């Protein structure tokens, strides 16, 4: 499969709600492979389809040596919370303290359309919540307290990558059924 360019903060695709996956086909399996390859190469703990310009509700994770993916996730969050450093491949080289649920039960599907339930805590719970937020057009900086968000936005504006042109994305000559943005 292929490593894809990761969209950076400021790209409009990162603020759009992704569409539900309806076709569990070869295109979806290729997307999961591209997400996995891109995430591992970055390296990152997770990567959502909008981060590579695809508006579908799919993400991958790589936490504690475990690779996984989830399609059309729904989450049940614990009331107990964790506060910890969080970063994002779309906001490179910056981390900030972010409050999240300590554990999560994520329901969805694998790339073949089979139902999946993932139980995660600590870093896996954080990654699942972070990537599901991406599918809703929410970035982790949106979840920061007011003072930390101001610091984060200043750091983003001061970063070397802020304002760089979005990557050139070649449009496939083949029908994409609206999957590519």
From TrEMBL:
<dbReference type="InterPro" id="IPR036821">
    <property type="entry name" value="Peptide_deformylase_sf"/>
</dbReference>
<feature type="binding site">
    <location>
        <position position="88"/>
    </location>
    <ligand>
        <name>Fe cation</name>
    </ligand>
</feature>
<keyword id="KW-0378">Hydrolase</keyword>
<feature type="binding site">
    <location>
        <position position="130"/>
    </location>
    <ligand>
        <name>Fe cation</name>
    </ligand>
</feature>
<keyword id="KW-0479">Metal-binding</keyword>
<dbReference type="Pfam" id="PF01327">
    <property type="entry name" value="Pep_deformylase"/>
</dbReference>
<comment type="similarity">
    <text>Belongs to the polypeptide deformylase family.</text>
</comment>
<feature type="active site">
    <location>
        <position position="131"/>
    </location>
</feature>
<dbReference type="InterPro" id="IPR023635">
    <property type="entry name" value="Peptide_deformylase"/>
</dbReference>
<feature type="binding site">
    <location>
        <position position="134"/>
    </location>
    <ligand>
        <name>Fe cation</name>
    </ligand>
</feature>
<keyword id="KW-0408">Iron</keyword>
<comment type="function">
    <text>Removes the formyl group from the N-terminal Met of newly synthesized proteins. Requires at least a dipeptide for an efficient rate of reaction. N-terminal L-methionine is a prerequisite for activity but the enzyme has broad specificity at other positions.</text>
</comment>
<dbReference type="GO" id="GO:0042586">
    <property type="term" value="F:peptide deformylase activity"/>
</dbReference>
<keyword id="KW-0648">Protein biosynthesis</keyword>
<protein>
    <recommendedName>
        <fullName>Peptide deformylase</fullName>
        <ecNumber>3.5.1.88</ecNumber>
    </recommendedName>
</protein>
